[in-house]
Write a structure and sequence with these properties.
With 140 residues, this protein is α/β, with parallel strands linked by helices. The chain has one domain: Phosphotransferase system, mannose-type IIA component (Rossmann fold, 3-Layer(aba) Sandwich), CATH 3.40.50. It contains 6 helices and 4 strands; from the N terminus they run βαβαβαβααα. α1 crosses α4 and α2 crosses α3. The protein is globular and about 50 Å long. 34% of the residues are buried.
């Protein structure tokens, strides 16, 4: 089973996991890393490393972070060569739900690519979605 770490600024990671589990149920082998303003680089590195180790498996670990260039992503990249992990940036709720549903069906690389596509497909304006499907927008 592929492990997952959700790492983000503030309480975003915790709240995303909470919302996902409300929809899909408990997600096993999951760890959350919240980066707060007061956290030092060493603390974030220790927290992320411990989180990865806590969910590590022969199948690997997917690290979902909020933003490329942020501390969770940068620190995760320094761990890439030491562990079997993949890092995906821009984590959102559809991506986390996709992970939970398909984590046992794919290998780490394929799952990382699949949830990346899911994340991209889930971002659009509601108006463009409705127009594409020829659904009339009603003014209220």
């Amino acid at each position: 089973m592929i492990g997952v770490v959700v790492a983000a600024h503030g309480n975003l990671a915790r709240d995303l996991v909470s919302a996902a589990e409300e929809i899909v149920g408990k997600i096993e082998k999951l760890a959350v890393v919240s980066q707060l303003n007061k956290d030092k680089h060493e603390d974030i590195e220790r927290n992320l490393t411990e989180a990865i180790e806590s969910v590590d498996s022969p199948d690997g670990v997917l690290v979902l972070v909020d933003i490329f260039g942020g501390s969770p992503a940068n620190i995760g990249m320094s761990i890439l060569k030491k562990k079997k992990i993949k890092i995906v940036t821009g984590v959102n709720l559809p991506m986390l739900m996709e992970f939970a549903v398909h984590r046992n069906e794919k290998d780490l690389k394929k799952l990382a690519l699949q949830i990346t596509r899911t994340g991209r497909r889930s971002v659009f304006t509601a108006e463009s979605y409705l127009k594409k499907r020829k659904i009339e927008i009603i003014d209220v």
